[in-house]
Amino acid sequence: PSPKNGTAPTPLINYLDTQYFGEISIGSPAQMFNVVFDTGSANLWVPSHSCSPLYTACFTHNRYDASKSLTHIYNGTGFSIQYASGNVRGFLSEDVVVVGGIPVVQVFAEATALPAIPFIFAKFDGVLGMGYPDVAIDGITPVFDRIMSQHVLKQNVFSVYYSRDPTHIPGGELVLGGTDPNYHTGSFHYMNTKEKGKWEVVMKGVSVGADMLFCMNGCTAVIDTGSSYITGPASSISILMKTIGAVELAEGGYTVNCNLVKLLPTVAFHLGGQEYSLTEEDYILWQSEFGEDICSVTFKALDVPPPTGPIWILGANFIARYYTEFDRGNNRIGFAQAI
Ligand SMILES: CC(C)(C)OC(=O)N[C@@H]1CNC[C@H](C(=O)N(Cc2cccc(Cl)c2Cl)C2CC2)C1
After folding, report:
1. What is the position in ligand 1's atom list of the atom closest to the CA of 119?
2. Contact 20, 172 (CB under 8 A)
3. How far is it, in rounded angstroms, from Cα 111 to Cα 101?
4. Considering the chain, what is the average pLDDT of its residues?
5. Which of 177, 186, 290, 327 has the most beta carbons within 10 angstroms of its beta carbon?
6. Would the CB of 226 count as within 6 Å of ligand 1?
7. 190-200: b or e for each residue (b if 16 or more CB lie within 10 Å)?
């Protein structure tokens, strides 16, 4: 079934403004999974029915059962994806995957070893990488590349809307083949990806209030729909935290006094000739726990060694403010004000 007017929307669920995921199916009859559409990776994996009972994270999630799918094709090649927090191991299978109503025959990984940290905190079952084939492990053709080769999309782009308001339904939307005017306003500003094969751009600086404090000589910004927060080099983040008067908590996060939140400066990311600013509303996570308010800062320190780093990762709280179009046809990224 070719998508209507060449675009295919998938509604997303917003879990605590930190996890945005949508439903896909794998197999015949359809087995449903909630996946993060992650521009920072390029593989599809879901928990496997043959996941060992030692892995709690498998049993709190939907698992793919190859024996129940008439269209399953055996592969069996080993698979491992190294996350910062641990690695996911399993083996490859092939089956019909349906995303936004578009079916593709896809090689994906069945996870048989899923580390409890962090995946017991995941509300999603698996990850559908929306990155370039260059990032795909085992050289597997990514889902979006398979969809593009069907020539059913009006444009070889996909767009992401993440809502900031947890009560807003849907909590977000992925559109394959175009953008959704209901969720952006004003015009798009485009910038070319830094090097072909990654959703990253050259950033010209990061300013706090009126002062350009970081990345003055240019650095790399990764636009990562699968990351919850914004990360920057640890040295920059610690200066930023001092500047806004945040204090570091035991487990590494930062908090500010909730009474001072309204006084916090705007942080702006200089990308492609525009300044993309985040106000305290965009970067403070205000939580009331046991009657007391905790205001945590959603910037995290992450040092990525050269030559990849130093990088800033612009994740969900950036995308929630700036509707993002990922343009494979022109190897560029576009931002517009999100509604
Ligand atoms: C090098 C390579 C392995 C390709 O790098 C990546 O895949 N890099 C990925 C880049 N995008 C974010 C991914 C990530 O951190 N998680 C974990 C996560 C994120 C938010 C919230 C939760 Cl609960 C969790 Cl578990 C995947 C689920 C998206 C790693």
Report:
1. 25
2. yes
3. 24
4. 95
5. 177
6. yes
7. bbebbeeebbb
- Helix (H) or strand (E) holding 296, with range, is strand 292-297
What pLDDT shows up at residue 238?
94
pLDDT at 1 over 60: no
Q: From CA 84, how far away is CA 257, in angstroms rounded?
A: 30
Distance 85 CA to ligand 1 centre (A): 9
Q: Is 23 helix (H, G, I), strand (E, B) or coil?
A: strand
122, 129, 314 from 170: Cα distances, Å: 19, 21, 22
Residue of 1, 127, 110, 95 whose CA lies nearest to 50: 110
CA of 223 to the centre of ligand 1 (A): 13
**Residue 138 annotated as catalytic:** no
Q: What is the C-alpha separation between 322 and 28, in angstroms, rounded?
A: 37
CA atoms of 27 and 295, how far apart (whole Å): 44
Question: What's the confidence (pLDDT) of residue 2?
Answer: 60
- C-alpha of residue 174 to centroid of ligand 1, in Å: 18
The token pair at 247 is 């204090």
- Residue 251 predicted with pLDDT over 80: no
- Give percent of the chain above pLDDT 70: 99
CA-nearest residue, atom 10 of ligand 1: 40
- The rounded Å distance from CA 227 to ligand 1 centre is 6
Q: Candidates 44, 89, 227, 311: which one to mutate for ligand 1, based on the most atoms within 8 Å of Cβ?
A: 227
